[in-house]
From TrEMBL, chain A:
Superkingdom of the source species: Bacteria
Any single GO CC term annotated in Swiss-Prot or TrEMBL for this entry: periplasmic space
Predominant location: periplasm
Location in the cell: Periplasm
Keywords: Signal
Family of the protein in this entry: Belongs to the bacterial solute-binding protein 1 family.
Organism of this sequence: Wenxinia saemankumensis
SUPFAM superfamilies: Periplasmic binding protein-like II
UniProt-listed Pfam families: SBP_bac_1 (PF01547)
PANTHER family according to UniProt: ARABINOSE-BINDING PROTEIN-RELATED, DIACETYLCHITOBIOSE BINDING PROTEIN DASA
Protein name in the entry: Carbohydrate ABC transporter substrate-binding protein, CUT1 family
Signal peptide start-end: 1-23
Automatic annotation (TrEMBL), chain B:
Pfam families (UniProt xref): BPD_transp_1
One GO term describing the cellular component: plasma membrane
Protein name stated in the entry: Carbohydrate ABC transporter membrane protein 1, CUT1 family
Keywords: Cell membrane, Membrane, Transmembrane, Transmembrane helix, Transport
Similarity field: Belongs to the binding-protein-dependent transport system permease family.
One biological process term in Gene Ontology: transmembrane transport
Spans through the membrane: 122-143, 155-177, 204-229, 250-272, 308-332
Matches recorded under InterPro entries: ABC_transporter_permease (IPR051393), MetI-like (IPR000515), MetI-like_sf (IPR035906)
Membrane disposition: Multi-pass membrane protein
Compartments, as annotated in UniProt: Cell membrane
Annotated ranges, domain ABC transmembrane type-1: 118-330
TrEMBL record, chain C:
Annotated ranges, domain ABC transporter: 4-234
Name of the protein described by the UniProt record: Carbohydrate ABC transporter ATP-binding protein, CUT1 family
InterPro entries membership: AAA+_ATPase, ABC_transporter-like_ATP-bd, ABC_transporter-like_CS, ABC_transpr_MalK-like, ABC_transpr_MalK/UgpC-like, Mo/tungstate-bd_C_term_dom, NA-bd_OB-fold, OB_MalK-like
GO cellular component, one term: ATP-binding cassette (ABC) transporter complex, substrate-binding subunit-containing
Amino acid sequence: MTKTLLATTSLAALFGLAGAASAQCTIEGEGSVRILANDFQALHAVVSRATECASDSVEVTTNETTEHKDIQVAALSTDPAAYTVAVVANGSLVPLLNEGLTRPLDDLVAQYGQNLQESQLIRINGEIMAIAFMANSQMLHYRADLLEENGIAVPTTYEELLEASAALREAGVMETPLYASFLPGWDLGEEFINMYMGSGQPFFEDGSAQVAINNEAGIAALEMMKAMTEYMGPDMMTYNSNEAQPYWENEEVAFMTGWGSRTAAFIDENGAVPEIAAATEVVAMPSWGGNGIPATTLWWDGFAMAKNISEEDAAASFQAMMYALSPELVADPEVAGLAAWLVNGYEPQPAAEGVIANMQAGAAPYPMTPYMGLLHTALGDNLAEFLQGQESAEEALEDVEAAYTTAATEAGFIQ
Amino acid sequence: MPHRTFSLFILPSLLAMLLFVALPIGSVIYQSLFIEHEQIMVEVENCGPFGCTTERRVDAEAMAQLRAEEPAGRWNGLGTYFNAGHLAFERIGQIWDRTETWGQFLDQAMNLPFYKALGFTLAYTFIVTPFVIILGFCIALGVNALPNLAKGPVIFFSLLPMIVTPLIGSLVLFWMIDSRGIIGATLQTIFGDPTLSLKASPTLTWVTLFVYGVWHSAPFAFVVFYAGLQGVPKDTMESAMVDGASRREQVRFVVIPYLMPLVVFIALMQLMDNFRVFEPIVGFSAEANATSLSYLIYSDLRGQDTPLFASAAATSVLTTLGVIVLLTPVLIRTWRDFNRKA
Amino acid sequence: MARLQLKNVNKRWGSYVAVKDFDLDIADQEFLVLLGPSGCGKSTTMRMIAGLEDVTSGEIVLGGRNVNNLEPKDRDISMVFQSYGLYPNLSVYENIRFPLRVRKVPKEQHHEMVMTAIRMVELEPFMDRRPADLSGGQRQRVALGRAIVRKPTVFLMDEPLSNLDAKLRVSTRAQIKNLQSKLKTTTVYVTHDQIEAMTLADRVVVMNKGEIQQVGTPTEIYDNPANTFVASFIGSPAMNLVEGRIEGGTFTGDGITVEGLKAPSGPVTLGFRAEDASIVPSGGQIAAPVYAVELLGEASMITWRLGEQLVSVKTAKDYRAETGQMVEASVPAAICHLFDAETGKALPR
């Protein structure tokens, strides 16, 4: 029994590269596959393919939720873990690594990972700890038609972006042409981190957890964000990436810094407003201050596997994910358009152009430092007052530093 | 009642209180005295789709061993209470030294996260509570004066704000006060100011939250008062009518004295509830302009990748102390009344 | 000055008739008592006078002015309620001052007026107390004080003594009588207690089922009840009523025969008061075995069972008889009242 199964899978693996795209999911052995994932379209495409592997001997259960980050540590701490597969991004992998809750995947990659590309393997100290399958970053969405009508060049720097916004306002096209996710909390923190990345300066002092943003680069980044608010709508402090689409489709904004994973919805010509979708294009995020580095962070989405699970479950889960991530996934043009896939067989689509452009222009990944999350939170909580003009940039950064230092001390990173 | 019988009689509720009140509070206090162990860090090379970087990482194995030895964490005493995220004595001292006027000092001190939250929480509590009582009382009087046929539907609609879940209620209002929503756009037209945003201005956000708080809790006061009104002694009411009291004087001399114990009851409930204000802040995405103590606890636990249990526990303890301080005057009064009657 | 007229007043709630064709003229300074069993419409009548209930039809005229559409406070009346209706958060003094306060009587007059009222109801030692710290009788006196303080044209009293115990009732009753004779204010007093009615009233209105049964002085009502309802409601014990027939001036009922009555032949109800009849050794109009002997203290009461009805006669307090013993009573025609057997109305004597 086992031998025949092994034989078939090996054959399938052999033909896999040769394009045996319509292969059924066959998993050798028994086991249980339990997937915890964030909830958005591109991930859903992956997770739903993995569920096709359910059979008499393999059970597949999934939990797709935007709250995944809040439950993953607790869920993987139990023995056996509540989930075998945790779909993570470079930011959310860190808490799992901090607690040592994931297992190295080298053996499984060697055995079942024939379809994987070297760029997909996330190695930490030489060990493969996660498999990436898509890249994501913010990119500049713009209305090509409006720029053309008004003779405005596509901005490559924030300075140009502000000028272009001013030009659109002067031309009477739009009062508030800019949209960026300034909702206090994760969104606002991310906006600052992106902007600060454009300065090329480090977030922390070398070799310690002391924060290093309270400097000229930090103030300049804040001032640039403040300059943007001039061209944003009155409710900008509630803007977030989930709610951008109505503004866009209502022709209230012409520039938006948005996530690649959501771009598909904005350029979908079968959507609610096809003429706007057709005129929507994306480029790399602008740089600022003459540094030439796109002011954004690069993210990957991938999966890690729980440490506290049996070998059978690990093998079954890995195989299910490998089936899900086979070239067949991106053979479906609709799925291919959802994200910048890192999967074998993927041909870049418009939605991925921005990410690739960012990479090529030298953008850096979101830091995987364990205390980055604490800084992100401190930023998200303390910058709103500055943007609303109630505080100076220095005061705001001082607040951030105090909040971060308090949290990092409590968490044991600073003594 | 013999002591033995009395003890047996209250034993179950005592046990339940111990289990569900005393123990959790005790564990929260204990938790607030410890912080996470010192993290043991190692440098590692991370490689992925965007190339390789050298980054610091927590040595999970070494940490696991530390935690196994001392599961509660590192003893910090009252350190968490005094740190910059809470009472912030050190920062208050710095601010005191560098500011010249009281105005500046208060302005900067109120910018500290704990005091900022405390400020809003107290403002919310002391503005919403009286308005809830007054508005609830007025609605109750109004409904009570309606013909019987109209009472049912009016009561139902008056209760709607309470029936609607706080989160949903605040979300509905949130969209209405959007600068393109019905209320927000109307206000912009009235004041002729296209940049007017109820969501952006801190003052307007506070006002919005207060209005929402009153809107949400008034039905509670209304129901209690309405029930109370049904019991207003008819003879006394009619005496007042014959004696020549106007409607207002009837309310002042008969209805209000009769409902006074209910006012105390509602004030108590509302003080407790409003001091723990939380949902509207989330619902209105108002965290930029208004944070409450409960919101601080929430953000300590949910804001980052790893929950800050000590911070959350310390804020919880401080909130509990706040509720106790707040209720003490009312409780002392009730106690005195009780003794006087006995 | 303060004549109170009720002209054909009716009160209906839907199809239920609470007061029917109430027509009465109350003279200035008169003490009028509305008497009747509960639910007879007496309280409703008073509440219509006070303005606490609307009049369905008819007219209420006070001091020559139609007050149908006036608010209670504009009718210049004051009212005392069964359960006092005091303001629990005000002291005795303030309770009594309340009507002056809300009627905007000049402040400087308050103290004197309140003290006069307080003295009249003898509450000086208690004037700083709250109602909760007073006894029932004291509370009712506060209510009285509050009613008299501003010297209204009409007092209305709705069963003011019903919540008091028997002893207190007697003394407060006397106090009310005394107050009224001093103040000489037109008073309408509602009660279901016929003794209160007899002792207090200048005139009594007996009501039943929303209709006036009889209006008259206490003596008239006692001596000449207009119908069997009044006869059975007034007096203690109530009038004995026996059903029977008259043939040629002789009434015959179960165990009773009375001669010499002036009435046409036919079925009638015969009534007489227990205190008017007497026990005789022989030749009495009643001759029957004794049903019960009750000692009342100042007298004894002998009861017979005549057919369906019980008939009682009062006699000397030392009279003794055994149950079942044959006893005779004298019921001369002179003490007898005759009522129409069908309508219950009194027949002319």
